């Protein structure tokens, strides 16, 4: 699924099979779509390079679609589980920015790429994490709550973190970045939420199209970003890919570990893995293009493809282990005359 759009119908790990199939299609098709867009941007940069001014508006469309999928229930989940949601937010905004800075320095990345990697780490959670958490048989309610609040907090968290960690590589105008996030993220999300609250009953027919509209828009953003740095990709692509794989992989592992250390339970720990390791790479690409350069946006473009692929693979592995654990527990529970879940 696109990194900025959550499934409108998935609300719990026990969702019916049609939702399961829809989610599986999303996490399978969307990365392919984004990958194709990246290839097009690389092979025909002239067709997309002039579109860079449109990237913030395209991101606004994505975030408006996200707002349309929100309901008050998403925010009620925060009040019911403030400890778990707070832990998810702290883990997200500490682990991923810190990893970005460490990886940029460890790999000796050029300033533009280093700032781009750090900016990806400072972005809010990508809501494709909600789908992947569902596929992993994780705590979807927790995933939705963390993704929602991290997005709302992005204007006051992402710019100062970027200034703190990326300022040694490139000048960072945190004030201007706050204004851009408000315009391209928070206002469209709130507008979408308002439309959902006021006219929700009229939107049922189009809700199924929102993930595809979001995916198509993100694909265009990726094509534009890749086209803007096409000349530098051949020399930097491998280095960027290594940085992205390390960033995402370590984020998934440390997020899962944070849930385990806090004793949140297996489903919540799976949700934590994806809420930490998956980023709103569309926002990172837009900010990098506007405040740094198209080359700085390259890590976000690669992250947009890779975290969907890795997320789907890790989710499949987690779901397999969860099913295996349940099958192992069932005979013991039956022998003791207890339910399978203990």
TrEMBL record:
Intracellular or extracellular location(s): Membrane
Signal peptide: none
Pfam families, A to Z: SBF (PF01758)
Principal location: membrane
Keywords: Membrane, Transmembrane, Transmembrane helix
Domain of life: Bacteria
Entry annotated with the keyword Transmembrane: yes
Membrane-related topology note: Multi-pass membrane protein
Membrane-crossing residue ranges in chain numbering: 26-48, 54-71, 83-107, 113-133, 140-157, 210-230, 236-259, 298-320
Keyword Transmembrane helix: yes
Gene3D superfamilies the UniProt entry points to: 1.20.1530.20
Protein name listed in UniProt: Bile acid:sodium symporter family protein
Organism: Streptomyces hebeiensis
């Amino acid at each position: 699924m696109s990194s900025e759009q959550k499934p409108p119908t998935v609300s719990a790990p026990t969702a019916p099979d049609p939702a399961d199939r829809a989610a599986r299609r999303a996490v399978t098709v969307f990365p392919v779509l984004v990958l194709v867009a990246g290839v097009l941007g690389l092979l025909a940069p002239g067709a997309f390079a002039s579109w860079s001014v449109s990237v913030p508006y395209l991101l606004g469309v994505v975030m408006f679609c996200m707002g349309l999928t929100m309901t008050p229930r998403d925010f009620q989940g925060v009040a019911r589980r403030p400890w778990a949601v707070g832990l998810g937010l702290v883990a997200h905004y500490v682990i991923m920015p810190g990893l970005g800075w460490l990886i940029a320095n460890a790999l000796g990345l050029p300033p533009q790429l280093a700032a781009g990697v750090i900016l990806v780490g400072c972005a809010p959670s990508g809501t494709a994490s909600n789908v992947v958490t569902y596929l992993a048989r994780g705590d979807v309610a927790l995933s939705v709550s963390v993704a929602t609040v991290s997005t709302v907090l992005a204007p006051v968290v992402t710019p100062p973190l970027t200034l703190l960690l990326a300022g040694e590589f490139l000048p960072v105008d945190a004030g201007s970045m706050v204004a851009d996030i408000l315009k391209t993220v928070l206002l469209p999300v709130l507008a979408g939420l308002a439309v959902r609250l006021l006219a929700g009953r009229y939107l049922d027919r189009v809700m199924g199209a929102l993930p595809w509209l979001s995916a198509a828009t993100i694909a265009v953003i990726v094509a534009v970003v890749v086209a803007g740095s096409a000349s530098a990709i051949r020399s930097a692509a491998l280095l960027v890919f290594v940085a992205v794989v390390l960033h995402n992989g370590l984020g998934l592992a440390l997020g899962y570990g944070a849930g385990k250390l806090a004793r949140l339970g297996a489903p919540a720990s799976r949700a934590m893995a994806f809420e930490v390791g998956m980023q709103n790479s569309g926002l990172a690409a837009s900010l990098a293009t506007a405040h740094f350069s198209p080359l700085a946006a390259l890590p976000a473009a690669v992250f947009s493809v890779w975290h969907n692929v890795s997320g789907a693979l890790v989710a499949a592995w987690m779901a397999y282990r969860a099913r295996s654990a349940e099958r192992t527990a069932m005979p013991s529970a039956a022998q003791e005359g207890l339910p399978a879940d203990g």
